[in-house]
Amino acid sequence: MARIAPLDDYVVDTLMPDLVAHDRSPSAFVVYVKLWHSTGGPGRRVQMSLSTLAVETGLSKSSVQAALRRLRKRGFLASRMASATAVPVHTVLAPWRR
pTM of whole model > 0.70? Predict the structure, then answer.
């Protein structure tokens, strides 16, 4: 079994209130934590479809899409697709560690 990286204090103490209260986007926080758990921590990649993320987080696909856009815009996530219909590969980022 893969070892899961514990969440940084920053994620709970700063990012959660920022995304949930300030940005009014709790779905972005849920998606970030799910991807963190799936990858094992920042800097690692996971290939996960929009549908899979929606099912595994309990969110709608449109909420997941909006969350992914917000996370990419804020620099907490990078996503790549080999083609327009390919399943994206997501990389969890931790910009506060710089």
Answer: yes
Could you tell me the CA-to-CA distances from 16 to 27, 40, 48, 81 in Å, in that order? 10, 19, 22, 28
Residues 65-96 as b/e (b if ≥16 CB within 10 A, e otherwise) read: bbbbebbeebebbeeeeeeeeeebebebbbee
pLDDT digits (tens, 9 = 90+) for 26-72: 999 999 999 999 998 899 999 999 999 999 999 999 999 999 999 99
**Model pLDDT, residue 3:** 59
The SS3 assignment for 39 reads: helix
In order of start, what are the domains of the chain with their CATH numbers? 9-97 (1.10.10.10)
